[in-house]
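Schema walk-through. Below, the input block comes first and the output block second. Nothing else is stored per chain. Lengths vary across the set, and this one has 413 residues.
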Amino acid sequence: MNINAYKPQGDKKNSAFFEEYCAKIYSRRESSGLDQLLQNLCAFIIHLESGDGLPYLEELALMTPYRLQTSYINNSHKIYILRTCNQFPRLIVMEPLSSDYEDDIKRLNMIYPLARNKPNARYVGEIMYTKDLKETQDILESHNIRFHYPGETENNFYTGHNIRFTVPSDFTHNRLGYTHIDLEDHSALELGQPFQLNSKEQQRLDQVARLSEELGIHHLIEGVDHMATRVLAGEREDAILEFLSISNYYFWGAYNIKEMNSSTNVNRNHTVSDDKLSPAKVFTANNTPSFVNSFENLPMPTEDFVRNYGRRMHHIAYEVTDGDHISQQKNVDFVVSQLNENKISFLGDVIGECSDQPNLKQIFSRQSPYSVLITEYVERCQGFSGFFTRDNVASLTEAAGHDERYEHGHVFD
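--- output ---
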């Protein structure tokens, strides 16, 4: 695919600044050799509160295709590596050993009123395969991209010999890591000493995994389809361009969601044939910032989320296998009904229709009490090739907004 010749989809108009620098970024990635080095995303990282590790692993075993593969312990964290049954990206979960643990995640979360409830819980970022770790870092640092260095962070995971991370983005507060190591080579990752759950903990986890199988949903939930980060209205273009600068993704397109006064902006990896091998990165932002919105009095759930929780990952979407279940439901409806019966709450009903035309059915869960992330389920019907429909996104955004409000003084946002 020639990304330089690609015409982005959608009706969201970008500035001349965006168009100029998007082209410059693509050109520099190619001339610097970055595009030739970078491959696909190979892992996602989530950081939790101390004590939330096992409950979150249980949640994942019920709601996602991820299963615990191996565990490590170092001087500050338990680190769990989870995988699916195929070659989709791994999921890495970090749990501090001490409830007193503090690093930049906690210091950042404490700024925002609704993030303080789980001050160590945050989506950290992704890890991307590269053919040469040192050369990748050298190229990016020559482009003014900052990396973590030993001694500059409390969490040594970010400064490993074989994995290196950028510092949190000013626009998204996400990081991007790079490695040349096959994640199956666990010893080369140098994450600490291997350890195993005790028999009671493993029994609990196995019981939930069996439940997912017995409910008939595990084989229907595939890999991660996309991840959506919410940013401030005025930082939408900067967030996208920054991510394009440090990855091999391209700007697929952006759509205005007029009903919610926001836009959805999709970036994809052109090196993979299946997005689940390197999921789409989505950025959502309000169209008007909060300080002028009182003139317009428009909905602003996206901006309010950022004001209440900070710039951060909002949800992770999993694709559900398209098809009609024997219960005469679409597969996504069946998955949701089974989870509902097992005390997993959702923000309303499944949205979208699947008939004889290509379409999309979607739904948001409520926030995880452990990761503060929403899980989305997506079923593409009749070969639907997009990431959303305007009506679906408007309904999902509105539903999440009702659940993410903060009451203070005489203001309720």
